[in-house]
Amino acid sequence: MIVDAADGSENELIGALARVGTALVEVTKPIDRCVMTTRPQPGIDRDLDVLRTINATRRSILGVGTLVRTPGHVALGDELAALDS
Predict the structure, then answer these.
(1) CB–CB of 54/8 below 8 Å?
(2) How far apart are CA 74 and CA 85, in angstroms?
(3) Is 31 part of any domain?
(4) Minimal CA–CA distance to 61: which of 31, 28, 27, 29?
(5) What is the domain range of residue 70?
(6) Which of 39, 32, 37 is nearest to 62 (CA)?
(7) Which regions of 8-85 does DSSP assign to beta strands (E)?
(8) What is the pLDDT of residues 45-77, one digit of tens each?
């Protein structure tokens, strides 16, 4: 699942329970971006600036890991909402 939080605000959810669609997830840790962003893709040349930009602007963190606590349905456009603790 990809959550659109280009400003890095997803890091503020680490340690929180959140709901997305009807699923309940625990946001557990930041995820380092791997070198896969440097690999060429079909129709796109290799671009090392992608990883350099991630490292410079996001300190190589480009996501968060979650554990599913209660499975549910998630649909395109569903918002990730932290639950009050």
Answers:
(1) no
(2) 22
(3) yes
(4) 31
(5) 9-82
(6) 32
(7) 17-20, 23-32, 61-70, 80-82
(8) 888 888 888 888 877 777 788 899 999 999 998
Task: Give SS3 for 8.
Answer: coil
User: Would you state the pLDDT for residue 59?
Assistant: 79
Q: Tell me if 24 sits within 8 A of 70, measured CB to CB.
A: yes
In a domain, 74, yes or no: yes
- Do 26 and 69 form a contact (C-beta atoms < 8 A)? yes
**What is the number of residues in the chain?**
85
Dist CA 16 CA 26 (whole Å): 6
Residue 1 lies in a domain: no
Q: Give φ, ψ of 10 to 5 degrees.
A: -65, -25
**Counted domains in the chain:** 1
| Domain annotation covers residue 2 | no
pLDDT band, residue 18 (cuts 50/70/90): very high
Report the pLDDT value the prediction gives residue 70, as an integer from 0 to 100: 97
Q: Which two tokens stand for residue 6?
A: 């280009």
